[in-house]
Design brief:
The chain is α+β, with helices and mostly antiparallel strands. Helix content is about 40%, strand content about 10%. The relative contact order is 0.12.
Length: about 190
């Protein structure tokens, strides 16, 4: 069952349609075509739709038939990815960035299974296990220069450093303040004799 199939079912129960929801939220109707083709929206879009329909996010992201998340994270070959790991039981998120989503998720999983993370993320993993979490790609294919800033944006967007909302320890410091950025190696310093 795709995201669109689930959305259509929920809309039917709420006596509306996916087209009406997209229109009421001021979103492009081209999203519906993408969803019909099997693509899943970003987490922020799912949250917005869930709030509009007054349902839990899980209702829109979990196939009623399989019980599995319809967001197919590991199918992407994109790099410079900003992702979210979300606890199904309390809605808390961890926001991160990576070049390779498969390797990064395996790294997280191995660290959590070994008890190497600290704080609430580890405690919730110990309590709910791997099945208690979902992974979302928030953005992908971001330029190398922008990926850190986009990660920071999403950490702030989800208030992920607030222990009631997320698992991030801090917002990574953005590299900014340089207006004249140049690409390539800098010129060599002249040595006075």
């Amino acid at each position: 069952m795709t995201f669109y199939d689930t959305l259509k079912k929920v809309c039917r129960e709420k006596r509306t349609s996916p087209c009406a929801v997209v229109s009421e939220l001021g979103m492009s109707k081209s999203n519906i075509t993408k969803w019909k083709q099997g693509r899943s929206p970003r987490l922020d879009v799912v949250v917005k739709i869930a709030e509009h329909l007054d349902v839990n996010v899980e209702r829109l992201t979990t196939s009623q038939e399989s019980g599995r998340n319809t967001t197919e994270v590991f199918r992407t070959n994109a790099s410079n990815i900003v992702y979210a790991i979300r606890c199904l039981h309390n809605g808390k998120v961890y926001i991160g960035r990576t070049q390779d989503i498969k390797k990064r998720m395996n790294c997280h999983l191995n660290e959590l299974k070994a008890g190497k993370k600290d704080g609430n993320f580890q405690a919730d993993f110990n309590r709910y296990g791997a099945d208690g979490f979902e992974v979302y790609i928030l953005e992908s294919g971001i330029s190398t220069c922008d990926v850190s800033g986009r990660e920071t944006h999403w950490i702030r967007e989800y208030d992920a450093t607030n222990p009631r909302c997320g698992y991030n320890k801090f917002v990574k410091k953005e590299v900014s303040g340089f207006e004249n950025v140049k690409y390539g190696p800098p010129p060599k310093a002249e040595v006075s004799q």
